Structures
1.
Amino acid sequence: MDKLAVYPGSFDPITNGHLDLVERALKIFDRIVIAIAVHPGKNPLFSLEERLDLIRKSLEGHPLQGRVRVDCFKGLLVDYVREVEAHGIVRGLRAVSDFEYEFQMALMNRKLNADIETLFLMTGMRWIYISSRLIKEVATSGGCVHGLVPEVVEKALLDRLGVKCARASC
């Protein structure tokens, strides 16, 4: 039986840590949907269409490409998971501080639909200190994000923020 999981998030922007988590989740699941959650109140750096495009371009030529689909959803995650007939939700944990929020969300999702399980994966040690928010802050300040995000994302960040690559600081 083909096992499908949903990896939800804002992915503003996607990082190499996100892709590492997808790669490791594919050791457990056959396929993954990277699903961008649409939150009307948030003000992302990249539009929904740009984030979808950046993720798709980040996967081009990647061994994951054939087993990963990119999508978006509005509303409750459990409704989306049921709609795509997934078997679970994948979430990454960087630190203990992530756990409390993620644990609350997993319990609420279980309350809303007891058939959907949440699988927590620890972020790979190489990526444990990065987040999309931190990547944007570093890039905004002219710091080097090379190697922390896919090259297409690095270029889009630098273009959007109007900063030059600070690879000398890498």
Note: The chain has one domain: 4-129.
2.
Amino acid sequence: MGLQDDVKAARRGDVGAMESVFARNMNPLVAFIRARAGRDLMARESAVDLAQSVCREVIQDLDAFEYRGDEEFRAWLFQQATRKILDRARYHNREKRAVDREVAIPDEESAEALLACYAELCTPSRYASARDDLARFEAAVQKLPDAQRDAVTMSRLMHLPYPVIAEQLGVTESAVRGLVARGLATLVEAIQ
């Protein structure tokens, strides 16, 4: 069964189809959240919990989604994740939060998902040592200019093709290629 069939069945309430839709996208979604959310939010929230919350909200909004292809569905899913990240960051940045009383959440489960997705950016030998480099890599992703970070995460984590990324970012396809190339070069340099 393809993604389109699963989305249609999920709209009808088929729990197995819902699980299938999100099983295909969970690891990239968790990796995307960790890459986009930043260290402060990840100290307060679990990337896996945020991803599950996004999935729950997407299921509730599935009737409003018009299926136009797998890439468009993933773009919509990751757009919902971006909204969730912004919402949670706003929540934690309100003045009434007692930041000094917060305890960091250990997030090994989402770290494993992230390592699996980041493996696509690394050579096999580099992947073997990726566990040691994860914090440095995430910091490097956060330091990328917004356009480069968006292009790299859409291309490598969301697996969106360059034309779809160009449409999402409002730039040309060649600009996306340049953003991805520069972003990946910066990341490789940062983790060496």
Note: The CA atoms of residues 43 and 105 lie 6 Å apart.
3.
Amino acid sequence: MQRLEHYQSEVGDVLAAICDASGLSLAWHSWSQALHLDGRCVLGAGSVLHLSAFCRRVKRHPAANAACRRCDLVAAREQCAQDPSVCVRRCHAGAHEVLVPVHDHAGLVGIAYLGQFRCERDQPAALPLLEAAGLRRVVVQGCLLQAWLHDLCGRLERERNAASGDRLAQIRHYLHREPRGSLATLAQVLGLSVTRAGHVVRELSGSSFTALREQVRLERAQQLLRDDDRPIAAVARAVGIDDPNYFTRYFRAKLGLSPRAWRAQAREA
């Protein structure tokens, strides 16, 4: 949670600075998990809506609100999926805004919308008028925002990869320590619901909890047979199997050799 709060604080500072420098509102829409950490988007929830006074007035009307959604979530998405460049566009309601696409290796992550304003005097008078120099400054701010968002995506990906490795190691450590362990108990260790814990195990290992437990059990048995001189029955108990005869059948079914034969072969290698 501290990592998430750290990123959310940084995000708040950067987005506030962009809004202050441009004098414009900033909204965004995301279509991937690239800007997520610990299951939550670091950009927060409020900025998914266009909050400029102009947009709020337009969206009071249901038909116009539906048109806004098509404009932002369909037309802009299609445009930015094809062209990653920061650009200026005129929306269906007659306002200009700067589109800031964010891509990663998998494609379009999301779009930041910086606006709304007018570039021409025939546009709605409620919008701030940007002359050529002002428009150039806003586009540059959009480019700086895009570069920061790309860097943020990369940092979050590294954080998620590190967290995934740590969590998988935690799961495997639990199974080494508790070879008879249940998914319900693992869920308590991870601080998750049983359903979510099962999903996490599959996401991180590619296997169900039961299959991963069997894999870890077999790895532990091999390690003990190779590196430890304890009897076969003691090895069986160490991996959660009380019946040494069942353990011998189980081990042979998995590896094609009895535990005793496998130990002899491993020590000769």
Note: The longest strand covers residues 107-117.
